[in-house]
Amino acid sequence: MLSVNEGAMAVIEEMLDYTEELKVKAHELSNGGLVIDCGVEVEGSYAAGLMFSDACMGGLATTSLRTGEIAGVPLQFIDVVCDHPAIACLGAQKAGWQISVGDYFAMGSGPARALALKPKKTYERIEYEDDSDGAVIALESRKLPDEKVIEYIAESCDVDPSGVVALVAPTASIVGSVQVSARVVETAVFKLNELGYDTRKIAVGAGCAPIAPVVKNDMMAMGATNDSVIYYGAVQLSVSEFDEELFKKVPSETSRDYGKPFYQTFEDAGHDFYKIDPYIFAPASITVNELSTGKTYQMGRLNAEVILESYGIQRL
């Protein structure tokens, strides 16, 4: 049985060997829990963002950086390749756990969810449950968790607090930008799951997305990082079964909220996520190779105009 938490721990061990190079800082708490600051009180780095993303997917994906262009503007892109998409994306990477302890709140993602079964229906659908003495959670927050937060996570995962590792980065940070763009494949897998497709039929998931420039405001950064995927994320899937009508619904352009930077959509919704069409959280383009027939289909399109508006790039 593949263990996403054990896979993530292997990534963590490497991070701890290179904290100075990665511009991250590890804090051991009094209860033995380990917090790795990737952008709260430190600068972080692109390399740390890759390792943060790798850990988030339980070590079941490969991520890399490259420089690309959007309408002549050079930008960093992330490439993601995953041979176990259902487990890596839904079973680990998905941000499916709201961590709320006292006045601390963070959106939790990563392998620890597979131990806590957050949410349980996801794991029932993909028929996966992890078994590990260690739990790795990724927290999108501007505040580092304390012992009480680690104890809550440990209890939920049925592990000792000393077995918990928390990776932390705010949205408006280098690592925050990288790890959101690294969710490009996840958004396609997640949307297919929501549409009723059995994601275990996805043999391989690969994708790329630009990495949003850092905006020193978490709300604006939330918009720009999401737009990286919504307007310029491209995904390629190899599947055992293709359903044309279902897959045509995957690209973000099928959402009623498509067409403007996400931050504007969020403002128009009165900062209420429940008023936003959830189908907007999807890649811009998807290419599907049906392994049983050898046929390949492409849906959606990249949108340079909106992505550059979202990033606020000024041509001088």
TrEMBL record:
Keyword Cytoplasm: yes
Protein encoded by which gene: mch
Function (record text): Catalyzes the reversible interconversion of 5-formyl-H(4)MPT to methenyl-H(4)MPT(+).
Full protein name: Methenyltetrahydromethanopterin cyclohydrolase
Source superkingdom: Archaea
Subcellular location: Cytoplasm
Keyword Cytoplasm: yes
GO annotations of cellular component type: cytoplasm
GO molecular function: methenyltetrahydromethanopterin cyclohydrolase activity
SUPFAM superfamilies: Methenyltetrahydromethanopterin cyclohydrolase (SSF56199)
Family of the protein in this entry: Belongs to the MCH family.
HAMAP family from the UniProt entry: McH
EC number(s) reported in the record: 3.5.4.27
